[in-house]
C-alpha cells in the first residue's frame, strides 16, 4: 500500500517536469515531507480549463484531497479508506471504475515511506503475544533523484447540503494505484547488510510508478477503453528504485521537515507505530 509519502518540489519545478501549461498560484502547497491521507496534494491532469473557450484538454497542476470520495457517495466519511486502489481490480470496483476510464492523474512525489517490523518484534508476533510490533520506516525513492510519478485517479463529489456558490460545495479527491512490490534487488546499497534487499521484503505492495514515456497516454482523457488503459498499468522496469532506513520521527504525522529523509546507517531502535 501507500499511506505516507514526501512531496517537496515547487510548483514551478513540477511545471517544467510535466509540461504544465495551467496552474493557479493561489493553490500552491508548501513542501511536505510527511504527506498523510486527507491532506491536500499536488496532482497533474489533462482537462479543459473551466470556462475557457477552447474545449481541448490542458495539462494542469491541481491540488486535490488524498482519499477518493465516489461521486455517488452520500457523505465523504469513507475517504480515508480509499487512499489506494489495486491495479489488479481498479477497473471493476464501483468506486474506481468511472474515474479509471475518464479521470486519471499523476501524483508527483520524492518517494514514499513504508514500515518493516523489526526482527525481534516479528518473533513476538509469531508467538502470539499481545504487543503492538515495533516498525522501522524506510524511504523508497528513484535512485537517480528524479520525480516519483505515482499513477492516480481523481473524482468529483458534490456536497448537496451546501449551495452551489459555497466554496466547499465541490470536493475533488484522489487515490493512488498500487501494484505488487518488486522482488528484484534494489538499486545501490539498499540490500547490503541486515536491511531488506527487495521492496517486497519491506511490504508486498507499492505505488505504481509511471515512467515519463507513459505519462501522456495515462493522462489522455480521450483514452477511455478499459483494456487500453489497463495495458498502461504494467510496473516500470526494475532497478530504478532504492530504499533506505530513516528515523522513526516520520511515524508521527505531526512531524515534518527535510530531516525526515535523512538516511541512517542502519535500522534504529524503533518506536511503536
Topology, please?
Blueprint: E1 5-7, H1 11-18, E2 22-23, E3 32-35, E4 40-47, E5 58-66, E6 84-86, H2 97-102, E7 104-109, E8 111-117, H3 119-127, E9 135-142, E10 148-158, E11 170-180, H4 199-202, E12 205-207, H5 215-219, H6 226-230, E13 241-245
Parallel strand pairs: 2-5, 5-11, 6-11
Antiparallel strand pairs: 1-3, 1-8, 4-5, 7-10, 8-9, 9-13, 10-11, 11-12
Averaged pLDDT? 88
C-alpha termini separation: 16 Å
The H-level CATH homologous superfamily, spelled out, is: SOS response associated peptidase-like
What would the CATH topology be?
A: hypothetical protein yedk fold
The assigned structural class equals alpha+beta
Query: Into which percentage range does the β-strand content fall?
Result: 25-35%
What's the CATH C level?
Answer: Alpha Beta
Gyration radius, in Å: 19 Å
Q: Could you give a short account of the major beta sheet?
A: 8 strands, mixed
State the order of secondary-structure elements, H for helix, E for strand.
EHEEEEEHEEHEEEHEHHE
Number of helices: 6
Number of domains: 1
Uncertain regions spanning at least 5 consecutive residues: none
Strand count = 13
| CATH architecture level-2 label | Alpha-Beta Complex
Helix content: 10-25%
Shape: globular
Structure notes:
It is a single chain. With 273 residues, the chain is of the alpha+beta class. It has a single domain (5-261), classed as SOS response associated peptidase-like (hypothetical protein yedk fold). The protein contains 6 helices and 13 strands. Strands 2, 4, 5, 6, 7, 10, 11 and 12 form an 8-stranded mixed beta sheet that branches. The longest helix is centred in the middle third of the chain and has 9 residues, at 119-127.
